[in-house]
Amino acid sequence: MITIKDLHKDFGSNHVLTGIDLTINEGEVVVIIGPSGSGKSTLLRCLNLLEEPTSGSVEFEGQELTSKKTDINQLRQKMGMVFQNFNLFPHKTVLENLTLSPTKVKKEALDVTEKNSRHLLAKVGLADKESAYPNQLSGGQKQRVAIARALAMAPDVMLFDEPTSALDPEMVGEVLQVMKDLAKDGMTMVIVTHEMGFAKEVADRVIFMADGIIQEEGHPNAIFDAPQNPRTQDFLSKVL
Ligand code: ADP
Ligand code: MG
Fold first, then answer.
1. Residue with CA nearest ligand 1 atom 21
2. 34 C-alpha vs ligand 1 centroid, how far in Å?
3. pTM as predicted
4. Other C-beta atoms within 10 Å of 164: how many?
5. Which residues does the UniProt record annotate as the domain ABC transporter (predicted)?
C-alpha cells in the first residue's frame, strides 16, 4: 500500500531522515518506536506530504506522492491522521466534526454522512455525545472523536502520531481499545507510540528509528524480547 524508498528530510542543516526504506502492506499494523527527536513524526508527515521530502520517493497505492500528476488532496482523503492533540474543530458539535469533511470535500449528502457518522460514534462508544462540543469532553473522548472523524472519510490507511501521549493515564486504555478494534477489523495502520504493551499485542511489525534511519525492524516478539541492535537494546532498557 505504501512504499518508501531512500527517503531523506532535512530541516536546514538538520538531517532528520537520512535514508528510510519501508513498505507497508494492506491490512498491516506497523508500530514505530524510537527516542524523542528521532524523526518519527517527520516520517509520518512525509507519508501524506504534511512535510515535503527532501529526496527519495513515497508511493501510495501505486502513485508517487511528489509527482506533478498526483492529486495530493485526493490521496490525502484516503489517509486518516490522528494527532497527539486531537485537533477537533472547537466550535462544531461532535457530529459536525465528523460530517464536515465528507460533505465539504467528498460532497456526500448530509443525511448519508450523518447516518455513517452516528454508526462510527457508536463504534467508538460515543453515541450519546453527538451534540456535545469538544470542550465538554474528556481527553479520551476527544481522541475517540478524532479517530471517528478520520474514519468518516473512509480512509484506506490510518496514521497515528502518539495518539495517547496527551491523555491522563486512566484514559489511555479506552483509546487503545478503539485502535485494537480497528486493527481487528483489518485497517492498515501506522502508529507512532510509546505504549510498548500495545505495540507488543497489536503490531504485526515494529520499527525502531534512531539517528535518521530504521535501526531495526521485526516481529514484536523479536524486537522486544531479543533486540539485535545495541541502539534498540539501549532504548528498550530505558522504556520497558
Ligand atoms: P520525533 O517525532 O521522533 O520526536 P520529530 O520528527 O518531531 O521527532 O523531529 C525530528 C527532528 O526534526 C527534531 O530535531 C525536530 O526539531 C526537527 N523538526 C521537526 N519538525 C520541524 C520543522 N517543521 N522545522 C524544523 N525542524 C523540525
Ligand atoms: Mg513526534
1. 11
2. 13
3. 0.97
4. 23
5. 2-236
